[in-house]
Amino acid sequence: MITAIVLIHAAADSIPETAQAIADIEGVAEVYSCAGDVDLIAIVRVPTHEGLADLIPTKISKVSGVLDTDTHIAFRSYSRADTESAFDIGIEAD
Fold first, then answer.
1. Where in the numbering of this chain does the Transcription regulator AsnC/Lrp ligand binding domain appear (predicted)?
2. pLDDT by residue (tens digit) across 18-77?
């Protein structure tokens, strides 16, 4: 599975509607509204690079209110849960 983080600039007057429309697209796992340089961040998970190449320009970028996107493909995931589970291998709880 390919995970990508899509930074989205959106029209200020339609951020909630734009976010929901993006969240409703197949392949979009989560959408966050945020403060900072971008208005929305979408987490996208698709099986192939071709799926990603189709999803961003033909679906997300076409949503009303989307002004610009910047896509970052994730190579690896690191989280506390992943680290803790790695140390729990072979250890049984009492």
1. 6-76
2. 999 999 999 999 999 999 999 999 999 999 999 999 999 999 999 999 999 999 999 988
Give whole-number Cα distances, 81 to 2, 42, 73, 92, in Å: 20, 21, 21, 17
Dump the DSSP string for 11-69: -GGGHHHHHHHHHTSTTEEEEEE-SSS-SEEEEEEESSHHHHHHHIIIIITTSTTEEEE
Which CATH topology does 2-87 take? Alpha-Beta Plaits (3.30.70)
Whether the Cβ atoms of residue 15 and residue 33 lie closer than 8 Å to each other: yes
Contacts of 8 (CB under 8 A, 6+ apart): 18, 22, 38, 39, 40, 41, 42, 60, 66, 68, 69, 70
Q: Which helix (H) or strand (E) holds 76?
A: none
Single-letter residue type at 35: A
